[in-house]
């Protein structure tokens, strides 16, 4: 039985990394770069409808849109109130 990535599947980048193999994710538009081999400043490239964007945080939320296209919501930590 083949593993399937359904449209609308959502999770953090860390959850996708823990659940699927690197080659499976690359086949579906998530590319992991090796900084030693490529002159890039990011480790993960996410194929969005606008082209490839960098994912810098394990907590970035990804949603699979189908055909190797993802929606990327960048993680923004809550600011500490008071002090």
How would you describe the overall organization of this protein?
There is one protein chain. The chain is an alpha+beta fold. 16% of the residues lie in helices and 33% in strands. It is built from 2 helices and 6 strands. It has helices at residues 13-19, 22-27, and strands at 10-12, 30-32, 44-48, 51-55, 61-66, 69-73. A 3-stranded antiparallel beta sheet has the order 1-5-6. It has a 3-stranded antiparallel beta sheet with strand order 2-3-4. The longest helix is centred in the first third of the chain and has 7 residues, at 13-19. The chain is globular and about 50 Å long. The N and C termini lie far apart (54 Å). 14% of the residues are buried.
Short key terms for the protein model shown above:
83 residues; alpha+beta; 2 helices; 33% strand; 16% helix; 3-stranded antiparallel beta sheet
What is the 3D form?
Answer: globular
Radius of gyration: 14 Å
Query: Could you tell me the mean pLDDT?
Result: 88
End-to-end separation in angstroms reads 54 Å
Strand portion = 25-35%
Total number of helices: 2
Poorly predicted residue ranges: none
Extended strand count: 6
In sequence order, what are the helices and strands, one letter per element? Answer: EHHEEEEE
Largest beta sheet: what is the strand line-up? 1-5-6
- What percentage of residues falls in helices of 4 or more residues? 10-25%
> Main beta sheet: strand number and arrangement?
3 strands, antiparallel
What structural class should be given to the helix and strand makeup? alpha+beta
